Amino acid sequence: MRRAFLICLLLPLIAAPPASAERVFGVRGSEAPGPDRLRVIEQGPRGADCVFVLVPGTSGGAAYFRPVARAIVKRLPGWKVWSVDRRENQLEDHSVADAVLAGERPPADAFRYYLSWLTDPSVTPHFEPVASADHARRWGMGVAVRDLRRVIAAAGRGGRQVVLGGHSLGGTIAVAYATWDFGGRPGGDDLDGLVLIDGGSGGAPPTRAEARQQLAELAGGSPFIDLTGLGLPWSAGVFNLVGSTLARLAPGERSVLHDWPALPANLRAPVPTTTNAGGYGYALDSETSPGSLRLVHTRIGHLAESGDPRGWVDGELGTVGRAAELFSGVEGIDGTAWYHPLRLSIDGGAVAGGVSNPAQRELAVRATHGDDLDMPIYAFETTLGAGRVLKGARALARRSDIPARDVQLVDRSATYDHIDPLSAAMPANAFVRTVVPFLRRVR
After folding, report:
1. Residues 31, 59: contact at Cβ < 8 Å?
2. pTM of the predicted model, to two decimals?
3. 3-state DSSP helix/strand/coil percent for the chain, to nearest 5?
4. Phi, psi (5° rounding) for residue 3?
5. Per-domain boundaries in the chain
6. Which of 7, 214, 225, 248 could disulfide-pair with 324, CB 3.0 to 4.6 Å?
């Protein structure tokens, strides 16, 4: 995999499509029950010889990387970014969302189809949640890593350089892949660099008994995470899709979500009415968003001091429009996963920076090559990381004897929230400013 970095520097001299080029393609997944194809959003020139593969985190979808991917390929000629949409995202129903994004239906139809039926049984047709998906109980780290291996193989075809990165739990998956045992060799042999965006792996793994208990609880409950606590695992993803789409396409209109009686109280701004942008910004901004939604916290401004309906004032690191774009997404792919497999998060605790432990044997996690990596490592930490991200990256580098000059650690734990590396505006975005030079130095 390791080729002279000169190729990536010379590639801009060769005719190629514009850096803004974007397409979606499929990659066959591993042999596992359920959907067997993953989708990838490619941004950058098709002929690029260096590929930055990005994996989303808990309840994340590939589209939330689009803004930063666009900025990265603009600054790095010769590179393209592949954002991976995992198999669970294919359980989603994007039929009406796609029609709305295409301008074939009005934005309000997204609310009507996906949510209004919950309080108005006369609404037909409407979104039908997945009734059962027992096979998703097996969608743990092993399935995610084997699926990702197909993507990495495609990215590296023809000897291209490949850097693997992940946000949040996607960082844990990236560490798991790099340290995974593939017939005696680590997955890191396929890579030229590792990028951890407020995620990764470290700390004490669960005991074998704790892992066994987690599996027992999984067997008796839903296979999916329920972030809202409403007993509707899909609700966080659908709320985000609807809210972001309305804020993106009709930002100044009165919010139908604010007026909807079933909107959770902690998401409703304490004013008589809001615009779609005002209501969505209130639900995401770290100053007003509930703690249960810390995985989507960002610093994008505040509600306007007056107005009927009340609008949004952009500020701090990003804008409500940019946040709406990254979660609303593109045709068929948004920025959230409506059905995040609980097994994947359970297994994540056992990765333990690639150090073998009893929980791994219970969970069939094979991340055992934490001392066999030979690649530069980059890590970016926000408030949610709380010291764990950089500590885990340091420990991983130390176990593999990676020299300090090849380890870049960026601490923004005092100024950035969890989504800010992806949503902060350009050119001030600290993640893009620091990861671009790191990628340039990859050898």
Report:
1. no
2. 0.94
3. 40, 15, 40
4. -115, 160
5. 6-90+134-222+343-441, 95-127+226-328
6. 248
Cis omega (within 30 of 0) on the bond before 427? yes
- CA–CA gap between residue 200 and residue 202 (Å, rounded): 7
Q: Which two tokens stand for residue 211?
A: 């892992």
Kind plus residue range of the DSSP H or E element containing 155: helix 141-155
Q: What share of the chain in percent tops pLDDT 70?
A: 95
Using one digit for the tens of pLDDT, what is the confidence trace for 380-393?
999 999 899 999 99
Label residue 4 by pLDDT band (50, 70, 90).
very low
pLDDT bracket for residue 15 (50, 70, 90): very low
Q: Specify whether the CB–CB gap between 41 and 65 falls below 8 A.
A: yes
Separation of alpha carbons 333 and 296, rounded Å: 17
Contact between 173 and 197 (Cβ < 8 Å): no
> How far, in Å, CA of 441 to CA of 443, rounded?
6
Q: How far apart are CA 40 and CA 38, in angstroms?
A: 7
pLDDT digits (tens, 9 = 90+) for 348-370: 999 999 999 999 999 999 999 99
pLDDT digits 0-9 by tens, 243-294: 999 999 999 999 999 999 999 999 999 999 999 999 999 999 999 999 989 9
Is CATH 3.40.50.1820 what the domain over 6-90+134-222+343-441 is classified as, yes or no? yes
Task: At 221, list the tokens.
Answer: 């409950």
User: Is 260 exposed, middle or buried (CB count within 10 Å of its CB: 0-12, 13-18, 19+)?
Assistant: middle
